[in-house]
Amino acid sequence: MADIVTGPGSAAAKAARDRAEEEGLGLAEKRVASEEIFRGRMLHIFNDTVELPNGMPASREVIRHVGAVAVLPLTGDGQAVVERQFRYPVGKVITEIPAGKLNSSDEDRLEAAKRELREETGITADEWTDMGEFIPAAAYCDEKLTLYLARGLHYGPRDLDDDEFLNVETVPFGELVDDVMNGRIVDAKTQTAVLKAACLTGYFAKGSGDGR
Amino acid sequence: MADIVTGPGSAAAKAARDRAEEEGLGLAEKRVASEEIFRGRMLHIFNDTVELPNGMPASREVIRHVGAVAVLPLTGDGQAVVERQFRYPVGKVITEIPAGKLNSSDEDRLEAAKRELREETGITADEWTDMGEFIPAAAYCDEKLTLYLARGLHYGPRDLDDDEFLNVETVPFGELVDDVMNGRIVDAKTQTAVLKAACLTGYFAKGSGDGR
Question: Residue A37: its chain B contacts at CB < 8 A?
Fold first, then answer.
């Protein structure tokens, strides 16, 4: 059980957090043993044993994932391109931005994003903006997604895998923001990508509130 | 391979999407077989076989998760309360909002949020706002998180599990927004919760852009 550190958010506190991050704050866990549970097409699953900061052992269920990319494509007239796809784990069709796994963990992420966007929607784009890293489930999976904003769109043929079924739609960007805020959009990467894009494109501006 | 549907985002198109969602758009997959791979403390893992919309079989690796809650606590003077926690799957300390698993899949989510916030930070709150559902990894996990905003905070003692190690910090809300936007905050639920809260509290306002 670690200390409570209440800081004013000053530059010094921020620098201290950076250092602490490097040093793991005395919070780090050390791997003692690793048992492979399952090697699937998508998921590689381990049941590891770690040593906690207090020296005690604990088990950690970990999914190793190759990594992924997701792309929010925006048209020149304020529309977003989204997909409607059945997601078996949740048993329903949900609205998502185009996304896909890397071919290998060292694949160039921008190239992967261009490929996935073209294959799933037929779109190529002139302008790509890296919107940052996104770790969906840090408690149990090492998957890292990189989110992109794509603008300057050109439409061509799709190239879906034989076992890939999804519909592509364009929706007004403002409606997509509303659907994130009102809870209709439940997909995590889509929520973050849409709200980040709203900031980056000036759809959102700094308001009068200070967050209270 | 399903059709491309390009709609104007009208109310009629929206209603059509609602109906299509109910009917699965002809995109639904049917479970044919299910093999249990692993039953862990946190993850229950299956390798299922499904029938695709075209009648062909496919395998689906699925993690069944009990569900979770996450809470962004905001103080009366524009500060946010966050945690710094070592996440074994990604091998580093990351900044996150307080969160935790449900005790059972039918547990009341608001009660779970109150419990997790109190245990991890010692905080109780007068005002709770449901910020909606969040599905972190719909491709392979059925986990659903509910995000909450907590205001009107009171501080008391923490009550961490013996194997739980995390630091609690307060940071200015504006700094947290900046850190989501500049990529320092990589945790998915924290990204969405911070950006949604920025909208809800008036930290963001509607700008002049229309998303292009």
Answer: 37-38, 45
CB pairs under 8 A between A and B: 359
Tell me which fold the domain A66-202 belongs to.
Nucleoside Triphosphate Pyrophosphohydrolase (3.90.79)
pLDDT at A6: 45
Asked if B101 and B68 touch (Cβ cutoff 8 Å), the reply is yes
Predicted TM-score (pTM) of this structure: 0.90
Give the number of other CB atoms < 10 A from CB of residue A18. 11
For residues B169 and B95, give the distance between their C-alpha atoms in angstroms, rounded to a whole number: 9
Are A77 and B139 inside 8 Å of each other by CB?
no
Note the ipTM here.
0.90
A89: left (phi over 0), alpha (psi -120 to 50) or beta: alpha
Q: Closest-CA residue in chain A for B203?
A: A209
Domain ranges in chain B are 12-64, 66-202
Residue A26 falls in which region: left (phi positive, over 0), alpha (psi -120 to 50) or beta: left
